Amino acid sequence: QFQWMLRIVDVAGALEARGYPPDVDVEVELDIEDDLVSENRGRFTLGVRDGRAVVSAGGAGRAVLHVRALASLYTGWLRPRDAVAYGWLRADDATVDALERVFAGPTAWMSDMF
After folding, report:
1. Is the CB of residue 23 less than 8 Å from the CB of residue 17?
2. Which of 28, 38, 92, 94 has the highest local Cβ count within 10 Å?
3. Which residue, among 49, 94, 103, 45, has the nearest Cα to 73 in the 3D structure?
4. Dihedral sign (CA 24, 34, 45, 91)
5. Every domain of the chain and the residues it spans
6. Phi and psi for 12 in degrees, rounded to 5?
């Protein structure tokens, strides 16, 4: 199995472009750390409904994680509970449960390697 990397360069844009399970209706407040892209750094509110996301600036930042961990959640390579176990995500149980629903689904894959 090939491994590949993903670097999120636009947190809001990436989260809004991704598809989500159609039965999920949640709002999660993220606090993203990013030492390279200042626009990614800060608090975002991610609202998911009917398979689509809307991201806005602000919120309480109940889920604290680096953009690298977000990339792993985004692609399905890492479950939120595992991110907590590794120390890559700090959040209360209710927020982790919401993230589990948001990022549920198959692991991303590519048919072509470059």
Report:
1. no
2. 28
3. 103
4. positive
5. 11-102
6. -60, -45
CATH number of this structure's domain 11-102: 3.30.1050.10
Give the residue carrying structure tokens 């670097």: 7
- Calculate ∠ Cα 43-102-85, nearest 5°: 75
The predicted model scores a pTM of 0.91
Nearest to 73 by CA among 1, 13, 2, 20: 20
Residue recorded with tokens 């176990």: 85
Q: 7, 16 in Cβ contact below 8 A?
A: no
- pLDDT tens-digit series, residues 45-96: 999 999 999 999 999 999 999 999 999 999 999 999 999 999 999 999 999 9
List the beta strands (DSSP E) in the chain: 25-33, 42-49, 52-57, 63-66, 89-90
